């Protein structure tokens, strides 16, 4: 391991984030917010200067990135992204302290969507655009974009891509070169975002809101330009378009590549895809039935149920209804969906459908072995055999995920927070969802939490975005030994 390599790469990544801040600066100028535009220019200069200094650190072997260097770079990248992403909020006066600014920025880049802002509509247009842009960059992954832009990473780019990539099937069926793969994924991502923005605009959103919500939707983020989120528009068309694109964002992006190459049959035979859709449909039906009395009709109940269900399973976190007043069974189902998440290789959070399928099949095999010990049977997902080391890794990831959930919930509860708020706030941030229940419900925010709680949940967001293992590995003494 050579930390100098990771630091140098971090410098280039921070430099890119600084350049990205010029976008919101332009938006601010367009809306006559000169002071906010100046804030973003200053933030861009400070961030870019810091990135430039780090990128000039000398290393003897700058083109070789090993696995441990990748782990260090990816984790450090999300930590620094939050730190520098917080600058505009702090300098613009959107928040009054660094803790809140860091929480908001980390929530943005990790596409969690949890917020400490109590009046979003009072926020400057530039900062609203920055919130959505952080979502959008973090959705497909700033590290994946980084790999696409800097081809000189060579073989080492593989480790960066795999360490940051969401799930473990993201490159299935794609190009063999990592740079080509990441570039293809980003072209698909940009195209879907543009179509989403156009559809929202045609449904009645103004252009600014349409672009912001499209970026948040495709990133499975959840930041909105309205206090009441999507519910502020009370528009069936907007609800429908957003629901469709949330579903699309929850699908493995490698399937879009297969479709673009005419390989429809292979794409639509994907077992994880149909399991994901089946879970969403069944959960929607359950919630619909449970809230019919609340909304007084089947169509209205279905409209709100499908939106809330899809928003939770994809980790987007948009809201059109307050699910905190739903019947207990529906609330519990939505909390379970927080843990489940969407497909591997998507922009969603959670454990992922693919891992769930593997664990269910592995458990079923062990049950059969209980009375047929001589059985030799591989775990299959569709026609593909899942290697035993992958099965073990998935169970280890799940156990680590749940252990962190329990530990963090205990820590938040120890701060005097009630058990429902404590557990669902951790579930919502660790799974990169956004809203939870009770005091962090869909119509509430995270502003009331003590500073220590916000820092712990910021850690949860980063660990959840990197699917736990990447960050947890850095905490083991073995990682740092030669």
Tally of DSSP β-strands: 2
Q: Mind telling me the C-alpha Rg?
A: 22 Å
- Total of DSSP H or I helical runs spanning 4+ residues: 22
**Quaternary structure type:** single chain
Percentage of residues in strands: under 5%
For the sheet with most strands, the description reads:
2 strands, antiparallel
Measured between the Cα atoms of the first and last residue, the distance is 7 Å
- Give the CA-based shape: globular
Strands of the largest sheet, in order across it?
1-2
Helix/strand class: mainly alpha
List the helices and strands in order.
HHHHHHHHHHHHHHHHHHEEHHHH
Helix content: 55-70%
Instruction: Show unreliable segments.
Output: 166-173
Mean pLDDT: 90
Structural overview:
The chain has 482 residues and is mainly α. It is 65% helix and 1% strand. It has 22 helices and two strands. The longest helix has 26 residues, at 388-413. The model is unreliable at 166-173 (pLDDT under 50).
Summarize the structure.
With 482 residues, this protein is mainly alpha-helical. The protein has helices at 3-20, 22-30, 34-55, 67-85, 87-92, 98-109, 125-140, 142-149, 156-164, 178-202, 207-218, 236-249, 253-260, 264-268, 271-295, 298-313, 328-340, 353-371, 388-413, 419-430, 451-465, 469-474; strands at residues 379-381, 384-386. A hairpin with a 2-residue loop joins strand 1 (379-381) and strand 2 (384-386).
Highlighted features:
single chain; 482 residues; mainly alpha
Task: Outline the secondary-structure elements.
Elements: H1 3-20, H2 22-30, H3 34-55, H4 67-85, H5 87-92, H6 98-109, H7 125-140, H8 142-149, H9 156-164, H10 178-202, H11 207-218, H12 236-249, H13 253-260, H14 264-268, H15 271-295, H16 298-313, H17 328-340, H18 353-371, E1 379-381, E2 384-386, H19 388-413, H20 419-430, H21 451-465, H22 469-474
Antiparallel strand pairs: 1-2
